[in-house]
Amino acid sequence: MLRVSKLTDYGTVVLAHMARKPADMFAASDVATATHLTVPTVSKLLKCFTRAGLVTSQRGARGGYSLARAPERITAVEIIDAVEGRVAITQCSLGHDRCNLEAVCGVGHNWQRISMAIREALRTVTLAQLARPTAAVPLHMDFGALLTHTRHSRT
Fold first, then answer.
1. Is 94 a member of any domain?
2. pTM to 2 decimals?
């Protein structure tokens, strides 16, 4: 099954909290309290997001963390990449020379196409959308319908 790690899920919660007040400066401890996560977890995520350019940090008495750009300009793929590394469904999807079987493999390029489609789908979902409360998506909903729903809710 494809799924993001718990840390990435928590990272989305942290950024969604910040996205609700995008101009504000946030202390890691305040974010931890608001999201019911531990301070070490929030601090680790904020450092990942700072390195990835999604969040900026400022030291001092009035310091803290803030979004580096508007929530509408931060995508789900950037959030996942910041925590987990580049999104790819298989090792060979990351590029050439990743697998000993590449020269004889008949399916690697198809997995690369699938990975690119997943990345593109994740690129269409913004932090602003993730931060908005929505109704639960039924677990039996097919992926195509979910993508159609996501595209229509962007407007």
1. no
2. 0.80
Asked if residue 122 lies in contact with residue 89, where contact means CB atoms within 8 angstroms, the answer is no
Segment-wise mean pLDDT, segments of 10 residues, the chain, 155 residues: 86 97 96 97 98 95 93 97 87 68 77 89 95 74 58 51
CA 79 to chain centre: 3
Instruction: Calculate the CA 55 to chain-centre distance.
Output: 13
Residue at 144 is within a domain: yes
**Whole-number Å distance between alpha carbons of 94 and 80:** 15
CATH code of the domain covering residue 72: 1.10.10.10
The neighbouring-strand residues paired with 58 are: 64
* CA dihedral sign, ordered 84, 45, 72, 70: negative
- How many domains does the structure of the chain reveal? 1
